[in-house]
Amino acid sequence: MSRSAHPAGPRYADVLPEGHYTAPPADLNALDPKVWPLTAARSATGAVSVGGLGLAELAEEFGTALFVLDEDDFRTRCRAWRDAFGPDADVFYAGKAFLSRAVVRWLTEEGLNLDVCSGGELSIALAGGMPPERIALHGNNKSSAELHQAIEAGVGRIVVDSFQEIVRVARIAERLGRRQPVQLRVTVGVEAHTHEFIATAHEDQKFGLALAGGQAAEAVRRVLKLDSLELVGIHSHIGSQIFDTSGFEVAAHRVVGLLAEIRDEHGVELPEIDLGGGLGIAYTSEDDPSDPHTIAKSLREIVDRECRGARLAVPRLSVEPGRAIVGPSACTVYEVGTVKELPGLRTYVSVDGGMSDNVRTALYDAEYSVSLVSRASDAEPMLSRVVGKHCESGDIVVRDAFLPADVAPGDLLAVPATGAYCRSMANNYNHALRPPVVAVRGGEARVIIRRETEEDLLRLDVG
Ligand SMILES: *Cc1c(COP(=O)(O)O)cnc(C)c1O
Questions:
Q1: CA 310 to ligand 1 center in whole angstroms
Q2: What distances in angstroms separate CA 363 from CA 193, 196, 267, 366, one per listed residue?
């Protein structure tokens, strides 16, 4: 990724974060299909629509800030992942990216399974009608209440993450008279980054049990001794926003190595292997993710080869894409409130949201793009920083973006690729009211999560 520093940046580097931006795009009115939902289009009048509905009309009806979720886009991506992996594999959508009952229904209909990692997510999954056997429960510190809720509901798998949890799950299952299928989460010693993986410091994390040093093998011994647990497979998740499969290759090699060890020591061949999620998406036009078919083909080849090498039957493969399904399906619509030019630096464009509806920029310098969507403009590109309305100077929505120089209060901006980890990480900082999520399809809009109200805030504040 080649990005140039802001020409005037260094003078102010001590007070302003350094800029990262490329040259202005050739056409500020164009919508890059890599980052926009499938049905996004700019009409002849210049206004942008999604799902056949103008974003300006949606903003008028539902207010801003507003998440607009393209149901066709979401379902198309579900199908693409399902078809790419085929009937011998399972695709678990990672619910933490974004979960609501409507989304659970879509997933159920499209044949996907569902990962949850809390009692709250599990409740939504069950309320949305996901069959419990298609749900997996994750987490490094699931409470006894959450485990009880999951086992009682009959979830298809619990991914155990620690020695203590092995005992905890076993006791609860025993008390409920169940034999609970579990996978064991291992850390394989690979830390996946966007374009490389680094084989150091990787075991220094809170998730899973390390293969190196034998913790994972010891956990397998303990699980196999417990009658109320059925060990069905090994799970590995190497990171997020990954663009190539080299990290998965090392992970699969090591996980299959463990499967072979288990066969040799215990005489059992575990039937499942889960390689986790983390498959990257395009947040800006600079990002170049692979399509599900390429990823599926590559992961299958890797697993087949490793199993042949270890003389193991190929286990059932599962993957857990979250952002790669819902990320590009939504955009956030904001109204511009103020435009403040800092001569020689850039222009600050303030919108009616910010780190309460998208904390990713503040949290890990995530990059996004932004477009003027209520109208087209022929004005010159203006280097802008789109910021929120919160009391933090790090409250940045899009660090560096080119907007038309005539952008003004009352204009609507939309940030695409905000379907994952935005509404699900939304917070009430400054007692902000978390925005609604409106699903659109074929010219129809449906609120699937309503806007929070001041009454909601006051209801929690019991004096
Ligand atoms: C977060 C997570 C995922 C999904 O990650 P994405 O980057 O959204 O694909 C999948 N599996 C596990 C175990 C996770 O923790």
A1: 28
A2: 17, 22, 46, 8
